[in-house]
């Protein structure tokens, strides 16, 4: 595509706009009261047209927040017509079906006025550690059990904070200072975005961003169509089985590529769950479309237009399209696995461009203790942790890295400051990455104990303990995850359970799967893996057919004999 002079100017404005939304996100991060936002980056930020279409998003953020928030702003405009917004207004909601999928996510929307009219909206989302109700976990029977639900409501009206809204919120959560502080950090981020957008309009002599947004949408749609048209048209099928809570969840996906569009329809055993792993459609759509966008049109900006090239479908009322009032607090257990299912379809359409399966769902450590009747302060803490990602085309998987959520691990020092716990161990889990031409990323081993000797509760919600990440193109599966007590007492990967004061909880997230024939991996790379502690000498021989000397040098004759001999493991195993 060639640029006209006007297009080049708009391209410069586009770059400026992306810096505006990134400053919006950074303001949110720097003013946040919660480590989940400040340290882990569990948030989203973006700018929208007056009719609710997302123009641009901040790079900082998670797909589950960004792509679901892309639809959320239209709900705000439906609830509060454009004529009823005033300068200085701020509205919020945490409704799972009008926001980003569960009550702990707070969405805040702020209009930007210029010349007496709304020219844009800024929206931001962050995860609140506590929102009342039963607290962390999936044990609630419906959404009313899970916490306070705030419909779309103005919390700031023409510049004046509504203390009644804040009072209701504070009265229903366990950590009122942190929750209201996080709310105000969302307000501050949107305010910064609005100021920077108005400064941009002054600099470029703009009355609004209509022409710029249409330029962005047009080029994004054309870019997506060009990318999709390079994919062989057809219908592709895939299946994925997850552990589930009370029963396995067997899902299927049918992907249709035609006419410059991609359509993904989910099926299988999608009966709704009686527990909180149901997924509102906004979250299903967010992560499924993200799976497509990771492979198709990666250089095309993520906005209303590019997302419109991908259609996601799931049966209404199913576990992937939960309806009010289903419990949805742990919607990430299934939602964050959807990119792997989408990748299985794309692996047939565009071989060589798709990673193997990884740990997928976050392996967060959720700990709590009630203050009631104890004479000590209670706490409710969330520590982000991850397993390994699947092996990539030409590259190994990433160790202990959150994909697809993209959040960062919270530093141990911050975690220990936010709750009376002690990290006794945190290290990579050797041999957990699936063998392959490219190796799966490693999981990790995490040991946490009570610092004051008192027991605490853990809300365990861990996927891939029975169904391991699957290898691709002859690569081996990753190691499944597990959770246990050092004492050997029974402990389930699903459910709220007590950790005795003198015991240690051991959490071992899964490793990512391998990609390609392990016996085709360069022996020198296997040697480096052993030296770095990623692979044991035993696994080097059994999984990769590489024999090492005592000095960790490749024994070339022994390796050649092993790789070509009758004991060679079939790549299809």
UniProtKB/TrEMBL annotation:
Transmembrane segments: none annotated. Residues 9-518 form the Hydantoinase B/oxoprolinase domain. GO terms for biological process: glutathione metabolic process. InterPro entries: Hydantoinase_B, Oxoprolinase-like. GO terms for molecular function: 5-oxoprolinase (ATP-hydrolyzing) activity. This is Hydantoinase B/oxoprolinase family protein. It holds the Pfam family Hydantoinase_B. GO terms for cellular component: cytosol. It comes from Nitratireductor arenosus.
């Amino acid at each position: 595509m060639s640029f006209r002079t006007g297009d080049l100017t708009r391209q410069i404005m586009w770059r400026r706009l992306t810096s505006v939304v990134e400053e919006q996100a950074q303001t949110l991060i720097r003013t946040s009261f919660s480590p989940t936002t400040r340290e882990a980056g569990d948030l989203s930020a973006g700018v929208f047209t007056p009719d609710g279409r997302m123009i641009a998003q901040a790079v900082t953020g998670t797909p589950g927040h960004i792509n679901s928030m892309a639809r959320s702003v239209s709900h705000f405009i439906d609830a509060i017509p454009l004529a009823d917004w005033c300068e200085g207004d701020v509205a919020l909601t945490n409704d799972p079906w009008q926001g980003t999928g569960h009550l702990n996510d707070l969405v805040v929307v702020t209009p930007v006025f210029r010349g007496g009219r709304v020219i844009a909206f800024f929206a931001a989302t962050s995860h609140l550690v506590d929102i009342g109700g039963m607290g962390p976990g999936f044990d609630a029977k419906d959404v009313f059990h899970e916490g306070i639900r705030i419909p779309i409501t103005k919390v700031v009206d023409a510049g004046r904070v509504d203390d009644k809204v804040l009072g209701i919120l504070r009265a229903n959560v366990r950590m009122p200072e942190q929750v209201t502080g996080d709310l105000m950090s969302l307000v501050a981020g949107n305010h910064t975005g609005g100021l920077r957008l108005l400064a941009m309009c002054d600099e470029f002599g703009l009355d609004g961003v209509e022409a710029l947004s249409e330029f962005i949408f047009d080029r994004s749609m054309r870019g997506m169509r060009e990318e999709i048209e390079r994919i062989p048209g057809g219908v592709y099928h895939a299946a994925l089985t997850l552990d589930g809570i009370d029963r396995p969840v067997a899902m299927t996906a049918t992907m249709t590529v035609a006419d410059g569009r991609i359509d993904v329809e989910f099926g299988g055993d999608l009966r709704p769950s009686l527990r909180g792993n149901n997924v509102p459609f906004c979250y299903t759509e967010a992560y499924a479309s993200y799976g497509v966008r990771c492979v198709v049109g990666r250089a095309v900006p993520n906005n209303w237009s590019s997302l419109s090239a991908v259609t996601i479908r799931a049966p209404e009322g199913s576990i992937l399209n939960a309806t009010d009032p289903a419990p949805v607090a742990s919607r990430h257990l299934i939602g964050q696995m959807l990119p792997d299912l989408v990748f299985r379809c794309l692996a047939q359409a565009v071989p060589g461009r798709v990673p193997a399966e990884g740990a997928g769902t976050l392996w967060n450590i959720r700990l709590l203790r009630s203050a009631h009747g104890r004479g000590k302060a209670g706490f409710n803490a969330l520590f982000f942790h991850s397993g390994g990602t699947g092996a990539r085309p030409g590259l190994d998987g990433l160790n202990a890295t959150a994909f697809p959520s993209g959040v960062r691990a919270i530093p141990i020092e911050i975690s220990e400051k936010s709750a009376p716990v002690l990290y006794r161990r945190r290290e990579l889990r050797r041999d957990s990455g699936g063998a392959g031409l490219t190796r799966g990323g490693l999981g990790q081993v995490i040991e946490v104990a009570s610092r004051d000797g008192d027991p605490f509760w853990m809300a365990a919600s861990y996927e891939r303990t029975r169904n391991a990440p699957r290898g691709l193109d002859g690569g081996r599966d990753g190691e499944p995850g597990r959770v246990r007590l050092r004492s050997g007492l029974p402990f389930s990967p699903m459910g709220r359970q007590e950790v005795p004061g003198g015991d240690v909880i051991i959490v071992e997230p899964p490793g990512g799967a391998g990609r390609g024939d392990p016996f085709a991996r360069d022996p020198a790379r296997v040697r480096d893996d052993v030296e770095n502690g990623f692979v044991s000498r035993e696994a080097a021989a059994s999984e990769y057919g590489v024999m090492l000397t005592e000095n960790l040098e490749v024994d070339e004759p022994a390796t050649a004999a092993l790789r070509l001999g009758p004991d060679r493991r079939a790549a299809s195993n």
